Amino acid sequence: MKLIVGIGGMTNGGKTTLTNSLLRALPNCCVIHQDDFFKAPLFQPQDQIAVGEDGFKQWDVLESLDMEAMLDTVQAWLSSPQKFARAHGVSVQPEASDTHILLLEGFLLYSFKPLVDLYSRRYFLTVPYEECKWRRSTRNYTVPDPPGLFDGHVWPMYQKYRQEMEANGVEVVYLDGTKSREELFREVLEDIQNSLLNRSQESAPSSACPARPQGPGRGCGHRTARPAASQPDIV
Ligand SMILES: Nc1ncnc2c1ncn2[C@@H]1O[C@H](COP(=O)(O)OP(=O)(O)OP(=O)(O)O)[C@@H](O)[C@H]1O
Ligand SMILES: NC(=O)c1ccc[n+]([C@@H]2O[C@H](CO)[C@@H](O)[C@H]2O)c1
């Protein structure tokens, strides 16, 4: 069973923090960080990041990311999660060897069409504007934010892409990033575990579920876990 989970949402919503906790807790779990696909690798010239009419480097637009390369990496995982795990130093747990989870972490996860349908779960972390701006001001990015970047570029692009995502009907599970790290972790871990349980019950041979009270084609009637909240599992 393969599950691709998106940990998306706004800058400084807490995506990396949550992702790292989930990575430690979930079996056979790999991660791909969208920030690794900026067209400006560390220690190389940043000439692929356009400068806008506002004078700011346009970091927060999809064109600044090599999304084809990110998609290739996801497809490498899909074609052999075992091999991908080994190559990324994740040791496969024998007792859960048929379960593989891929976390995608990033701020523009749901704006690149070829990726959108690959997710089994799409989470979207948000915090209020003031909190976001404050958290961002405390960060040290490899390329420091020039003065005015947040209000002039980062926040307007966040609003634009979020509006597009919603207008396109992409279903996400919103998470309140002002909750404690522990609460967010528990909430998402439980939801992913329920997805796994539902998936394994759906794929169980029908002989394991002789009584099908929900009628043909509706899956196993022994479902005990909370049903998936927002969209079917499709991987
Ligand atoms: N639940 C939380 N409550 C309070 N602070 C948090 C929480 N989660 C993360 N933080 C803090 O907020 C800041 C951003 O967290 P993190 O790096 O996880 O966010 P992010 O969404 O990955 O950011 P970006 O992708 O923009 O770098 C960090 O200083 C982190 O310690
Ligand atoms: N990771 C980087 O190289 C980098 C460089 C410049 C800006 N950023 C910011 O990262 C955020 C996404 O995590 C975006 O809001 C970028 O502005 C990242």
Automatic annotation (TrEMBL):
Keywords for the protein's UniProt record, in alphabetical order: ATP-binding, Kinase, Magnesium, Metal-binding, Nucleotide-binding, Pyridine nucleotide biosynthesis, Transferase
Identify the metabolic or biological route this protein is part of: Cofactor biosynthesis; NAD(+) biosynthesis
Disordered, as annotated region: 198-235
State whether keyword Magnesium applies: yes
Q: Name one GO cellular component term.
A: plasma membrane
Q: Name one GO biological process term.
A: negative regulation of myoblast differentiation
The molecular function GO annotations come to: ATP binding; metal ion binding; nicotinate riboside kinase activity; ribosylnicotinamide kinase activity
**Top-rank lineage group of the source organism:** Eukaryota
This enzyme catalyses: beta-nicotinamide D-riboside + ATP = beta-nicotinamide D-ribonucleotide + ADP + H(+); beta-D-ribosylnicotinate + ATP = nicotinate beta-D-ribonucleotide + ADP + H(+)
Its family remark reads: Belongs to the uridine kinase family. NRK subfamily.
Q: What is this protein called?
A: Nicotinamide riboside kinase 2
Please tell me the species this chain comes from: Macaca mulatta (Rhesus macaque)
UniProt lists the gene as: NMRK2
